[in-house]
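Supplementary material to the annual report.
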Amino acid sequence: MSEHRIETHINGQRIEKSVDARLTLVDFLRGECGLTGTHAGCEHGVCGACTVIVDGLAVRACLMLAVQVDGAEIRTVEGVAAADGSLHPVQQALREEHGLQCGYCTPGFVMTLVAELEKLPRPSVAEMTAALSGNICRCTGYQGILRAVERLASAPEAEARRIDIERSEEPR
Amino acid sequence: MSASADRAGGAGSDMADGVVAPRFVGQRIARTEDLRLLTGRGRFVDDMNLPGTLHAAFVRSPLARGRILSIDIASARALRGVHAVYVCADLQPVLKDARPAFWPPNIPCPPFVPLARADVRFAGEAVALVVADDRYIAEDAAELVQVEYEAEDPVIDYLVAESGAVVHPELGTNVVFAGASAADPELEAAFAGAAHVVEETVHQQNQLALPMETRGILVSFEAEEVRVWTATQSPQTAAMVIADALGLPHTQVRAYAYDVGGGFGMKAHPVRDEFAVVAAAKLLRRPVKWIEDRGEHLIASSHARCESARMRMAFDAEFRILAASMDYRSNSGAYGWWPGSGAKITETFPGPYRIPRYGYRHSAVYTNTCGRGAYRGPWMFETVAREIFLNIAARRLGVDPLELRRRNVILPADQPYRAATGIVFDRVSPDQTLEEVARVVDIAAFRREQAAARAQGRYLGLGIAAYMEPTAPPNAFLAHHNIELRMEPSGHVVVRSPTHATGQGTETTIAQVIADELGLPFESVRVLQGDSSEGGFGFGGAGSRQAVMAGGAAVLSARRLRAKILAIAAHLLEAAEADLRIRDGRISVAGVPDLSVTMQQVAQLAYFVPAKLPPGMEPGLSAEARHVTPGTTWANAAHACVVEVDAATGLVKILRWIVSEDCGVMINPMVVDGQISGGIAQAIGGVLLEEAPYDEHGNPLAATLKDYLPPLAPQMPVIEFLHLCTPSAGPGGFKGVGEGGAIIGPPTLANAIVDALAPFGIECTRLPLSPDRLVGLIEAGR
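Predicted assembly:
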């Protein structure tokens, strides 16, 4: 086993740690950084519960090693709500539409949808649903999640995505 | 939407017992739980850590059956960071009386040892336990444990297991439990004299509950007590069985489960693996944590379903059912959690229909496969088998399947209806839920659409099914439920309850009930659960019981507290209690709105100025009540779905799904719909994709989520809900709803697929109807 020094920004905070080469990103976030909101559901990249955003992309934290995020910008479910605690539109829509029950898979759904909203100027229901095809929820039958997706797709743009990401508005 | 925004639409004027409350019961109130779960601040078992925590990993058998010749732990033990490697002989002496929580004492139980002893009995059975500084090292060391086996031929097929090699030599038989109805000559006479007799056998495949959070436990032996954090549906039950296993008084074990990532029955109580971790923590005197990985979960947690039934029904010339019989057989695996569902499945098989004569047999057997555990409606095969069978019968008799059900369904005039099994149905509406679903589908319009589609080579199908759901069955310690209430000096209420949620939202729903009964704002009521030392003994979530049992206890305890509040207010306001009205935390005298006192003022008096209380009244404001249910609370529903089947690929697309449900008074319709939806998704998985098969050597073939395939968002239809309300006789009028979707969903979908493929003459006698199997059936029918 070899130890590696990594430096990364997680939810805007600079983190410097020495990690084992084989430590997964999900175990790094949970065990080394105290960010237990990211959950391990299968540890083989299928269920999506551990989804986090690395340099703007939704990734499976169980399929990535901590050493690979050296120099990267990471966002986890803990960093999505506003500083005053008010929920992100994705979180708000999931709450209002009963898009979660036990809440174990929820951080993965939140991060997948946040990434999708930040990637596309205005994702359609079909695009967001396709993005969610890699996230398993065993409780809700996806009904509330799909209603939340519809709400996000039809919400005024300023509401559907927070203003923290600027993007072009050309038609797709 | 916030609670207050919701309230406006539903404000009622229920003046009973002095409360003029905004009615929270019946409102789609956003859940209290969501705020922490959406922001990554939940507290699941793997989120908990204690100073000095060690991590465990199991060594598991690669064989379904074999003798253990030797176990060499030396190199594992020598690995740096390893604290212990245990085999059964190390751990078993620590556990004095461990057994599955629901195993009845009068039926022989397989040896409930924490690890395999001299032999292994299913692939995945734990053989050794490694404890190390972290999980990576524990898994490294587990791979270094050398186990030498002598393989033996396993018993895998439950249909022939009765005559196979004995799985548990200690028991001397592979039959777990069997039973039959009394011989009834009139039953055979009814079959002999019937205009029509239909007979068929239906099989359901091996499946898993598959919660997204796997099993897990963190155990700490401390000076005063043993503390346990575990993924369980009932902290009280977990604490009790762990205390019993250790030979400790129930006051010496505290179990915590704050957030649990789904259970669906399979987290009802700790089983062997968890007990092994408890024993290791005791021996090491350090906190030990084990979090099951998904591979372990798929092969060694608990399996479910895996059953079949041969059914016969006799009909008269008008297609009325004269008699029925069921011969039910099921697999318990090597270590079933209880002796099987045969008794309940055969008891509930007649369902929502009038069946004058009925007979049954049931048996469950041991095999060298993963043990059978509970999974959302563990008895659901009664509905699956019956409703699939009725469509087979309808087709063979040439009668419309809806018409067949209409002619036999229990009507209001029949109630209370005493079934041949002795079950009495009352306050149920199976005929109405059936008619509602038929009305919304518009069957005539669908049949025209179906005919037009077939003309174009497209295969549309409609499936309908109906059932009765036994909710809150009063088995053993499930028959009662306790709630403690305390109003604090601020006028807010703390609720302590053995309710437990693995997604059901009881922190919200129980607060809705209590806020209504006390005339308080919803936000003034806080429900605390998840700690076995609080709330008094009671089971948490199982058997669709919490709305009925905890809801009932909430009503009763709140009424007790309200009586004291009103007595104090009446004394203070010099008014008659009968003239008092409570609304939104304020108690006023009817007709004199200025004459009022706040809940906070009453509470302050109760705690800080006892001299001003009515003479002789004890200070403080608390109440407790235990709701006892006299019998099962029956809910009912009918579902319909419309599918299109691609006859070339066998792919099924679900176009519509309609639910007509009567679960009595709904506390939170959003939660009700969510419970039904989740069950339907599991049903869809069970019909189309989910299967945990074994090969002939007993190797599990579903060991990853690439093999075991639960439904995903794009596969789900938009579910349409219709709710009828026939209140139960219990406090609040609540009925359960947690398991129903998973029970009635499978036959609804299977019947739709068969209807779509009617031109090929297929029948559904074996689940799943996966694409490959459908293509096979279609090819055979061409």
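Chain B touches chain A through 59 residues (CB under 8 Å).
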